[in-house]
Design brief:
Radius of gyration: 19 Å
Helix content: 25-40%
CATH architecture of the largest domain: 3-Layer(aba) Sandwich
CATH class of the largest domain: Alpha Beta
Number of domains: 2
Largest sheet: 7 strands, parallel
Shape: globular
CATH superfamily of the largest domain: NAD(P)-binding Rossmann-like Domain
Number of strands: 14
CATH topology of the largest domain: Rossmann fold
Distance between the termini: 33 Å
Structural class: alpha/beta
Order of helices and strands: EHEEHEHEHEEHEEEHEEHEEHH
Strand content: 15-25%
Length: 306
């Protein structure tokens, strides 16, 4: 059944990997979309939607420019930066937290949106034992994960105090076609397809990989789920894969590539596993991950072969 045209979505960020796939799906489902860019270097990816640059750390500019009525707001803002440099800390926290405060305060006063979806990160858990669940206390170790954690707590507070219709998706590792070459899976695939030598820091780490189509489905299902307001939901496949096994699988599919694992990892961890306990999102919604890692890797590799 087609979605009616008056369902308007505002996406914060949206020119990255997840945003590209989400926008394509929303357009297919007949949503109308505006997208806020947070810096001039971001590229416009779809001529069917309106893009505009807006400094979300400036609440005056927000009030001046956001005059439309939106049904849904999806926050994909920010970039992954695991460095702990004080030089970049202000920019990271402005992008991931202080901007969020302004935009949430703006929409909480207007009281006209159906839901606000915020994309969090499994890094909020730090080194908690796997599988991680939403009841665990966060333990951020970088400014990036701190910004995500602060955003999570702020949104939950706004929901409790003002019934703000927010939902937090705590994303593990998303992957699929169109992802940046700097990310793990595209990096490995491209080197294997070219039969090159490449380097991996830690083959013993275990991560949870969720295919992009499943991520997009979860976002769309949750943004229309009123019973989910104020909740955190892990978003992953629900199973872990050792990085060394992941690399070997990609090598087998690509029939090439020579991996070199670092003899010593740069720092020791008692726990280097991030696996999503996805019981909560399955209990609250009809969402289930549909594409397993082998199938997802084949789809992704086929994309890069073209």
């Amino acid at each position: 059944m087609a979605i009616l045209k008056f369902n308007k979505v505002l996406i914060l960020g949206g020119t990255g990997f997840i945003g590209t796939h989400l926008i394509n799906r929303l357009i297919k489902d007949n949503y109308t979309i505006d997208c806020i860019l947070y810096n001039s270097r971001q590229k416009i990816i779809n001529k069917k939607i309106k893009y505009f640059k807006l400094d979300l750390t400036n609440d005056y500019l927000i009030k001046k420019n956001l005059r439309k009525k939106y049904d849904y707001v999806i926050n994909l803002m920010g970039y992954i930066d695991h460095s702990n440099s004080l030089n970049s800390s202000n920019y990271i926290l402005n992008t991931h937290f202080f901007s969020l405060i302004n935009i949430v305060n703006f929409f909480s006063q207007k009281k006209n949106i159906k839901s606000f979806i915020n994309i969090g990160s499994s890094d909020e858990y730090g080194i908690k034992p796997a599988p991680q669940n939403e009841l665990m206390r966060e333990s951020p170790e970088t400014f990036y994960s701190l910004g995500k954690t602060c955003s999570t707590h702020y949104l939950q507070m706004m929901n409790k105090l003002f019934k703000f219709p927010c939902i937090i998706l705590r994303l593990f590792i998303a992957y699929g076609p169109l992802q940046s070459d700097e990310r793990l899976i595209p990096y490995v695939i491209k080197n294997c397809l070219k039969n090159k030598k490449f380097y991996i820091k830690n083959g013993n780490a275990v991560r949870d990989f969720c295919f992009i189509d499943d991520v997009v489905n979860a976002i769309i299902i949750l943004m229309k789920s009123k019973n989910c307001y104020g909740n955190i939901f892990n978003l992953g496949y629900g199973k872990g894969c050792k990085i060394s096994k992941l690399v070997k699988t990609i090598q087998n599919y690509c029939k090439g590539g020579k991996v070199v694992f670092a003899k010593k990892f740069s720092f020791k961890r008692k726990e280097n596993k991030k696996i999503a306990n996805i019981s909560k999102i399955k209990n609250f919604t009809k969402w289930r991950p549909r594409i397993n890692l082998n199938e997802g890797l084949k789809k992704t590799i086929n994309h890069y072969k073209i």
